[in-house]
Amino acid sequence: MSFSLNKKSVMATVLASLLLTPAVVFAQWFPLEIDVWDPPFNTELKRKTENYTPLKKAEKSWKICTSIPHLKDPYWAAVNYGLIDQAKQLGISLRLYEAGGYSNLEVQRKQIKDCMDSGGDGLVISSISADGLNDFVEQYISAGKPVVDMINGMTSTLSTARIGVNFYDPGFMVGSYIRERHADSTEEIQVGWFPGPDGAAWVAQGTSGFNKALEGSNIKVVVTSMGDTGRATQGKLVEAALKAHQELDYIAGTTVSADAAVDLLRRSGMKDKIKVLAYYYGPGVDRGIRRKSILAAPSDLQSLQARMSIDTVVRALEGKPFFRHAGPKVIMIDAKNIKSFDTSTSLPPRGFRPIFSINDW
């Protein structure tokens, strides 16, 4: 859905924020151990480890525009919460826009332009396209307005900062997890891979890592299906793959792909034959691991990436030190460690509904 700003929506979203917050008490998320790319934006994954501690309060109520691809995938609900809550902690104003899907680049562009034209001081973007917003990055940086490239990644190296993991890491971790399960076997293992929409930088990174982990092994990717991360699209992709490749041993991909696969396998009586993994984290995946219908999934701690992004754009506005390219360390979650996993890093609070503004201007 597209977001249109009016007084009623502002009042409703602020009220929702106030109602939700008292029931949610999360553990302090910092200091957080992070990867810092050195040099920034390098493609060789050269990194060093640092600790991250956010500002306590902003110096003024900065007006921040934030843009994400959609809210059809619960991954982005955790991002939504992290953005709103960190803005609240810092005492700044924030508007959140979601474009409705990965095919809606022009919608995302218009939403960003409208928000920044209304007086935005800074911008946080999770881009639909690897290069479709590069001109905006250059435009706003030239105007002295910081731009933080959050999570998805853009090809532009002009952004003020990039906060995000390289999805090569979770892709590689999922491939390695499958490989380790068959380290002593010579039998061919067949995998279906559902990485998300073609053209998104994170999808290309995840696929690269996944394939690299399987190189030289007895594990064969027999189908790769790309598409928007809405439930309807991913469900159709998984269903088509199951019909065409009845000897599959694993389905791996987005959280939405994993959720759809669990339902399809249960209905078809194949839930004990084909194993399911995701290469990022969401509520359905968390439930699936706990219920043993999903083997495992890495988390890139997306709620904390959102918090870091808001903190970073404020630091840039106030001339305070910040990491130009950083992200949390990816962790792998399965039945062995899920009970000790801090879900607040990766999931929205229970009962959370989208909130599109706080302290609106």
Summary tags:
37% helix, Rossmann fold, 9-stranded mixed β-sheet, alpha/beta, 15 strands, 20% strand, 2 domains, globular, 361 residues, 4-stranded parallel β-sheet, disordered N terminus
Characterise this structure.
The chain has helices at residues 7-20, 75-90, 105-117, 134-142, 168-181, 201-214, 231-244, 255-268, 283-291, 302-317, and strands spanning 32-37, 47-52, 63-68, 93-98, 122-125, 147-150, 161-163, 189-196, 219-226, 250-253, 275-278, 296-299, 325-328, 331-334, 357-358. With 361 residues, the chain is α/β, with parallel strands linked by helices. The protein folds into two domains: 7-165 and 300-358, Response regulator (Rossmann fold), CATH 3.40.50; 168-299, 3-Layer(aba) Sandwich (Rossmann fold). The strands form three sheets. A nine-stranded mixed sheet has the order 2-1-13-7-6-5-3-4-15, sandwiched between helices. Helix 7 packs across helix 8. The longest helix has 16 residues, at 75-90. The chain is globular and about 60 Å long. It starts with 6 loop residues before the first helix and ends with a strand. Residues 1-26 have low confidence and may be disordered.
Compile the SSE list and pairings:
Blueprint: H1 7-20, E1 32-37, E2 47-52, E3 63-68, H2 75-90, E4 93-98, H3 105-117, E5 122-125, H4 134-142, E6 147-150, E7 161-163, H5 168-181, E8 189-196, H6 201-214, E9 219-226, H7 231-244, E10 250-253, H8 255-268, E11 275-278, H9 283-291, E12 296-299, H10 302-317, E13 325-328, E14 331-334, E15 357-358
Parallel strand pairs: 3-4, 3-5, 5-6, 6-7, 7-13, 8-9, 8-10, 10-11
Antiparallel strand pairs: 1-2, 1-13, 4-15, 12-14
Helix pairs in contact: 2-10, 5-6, 7-8
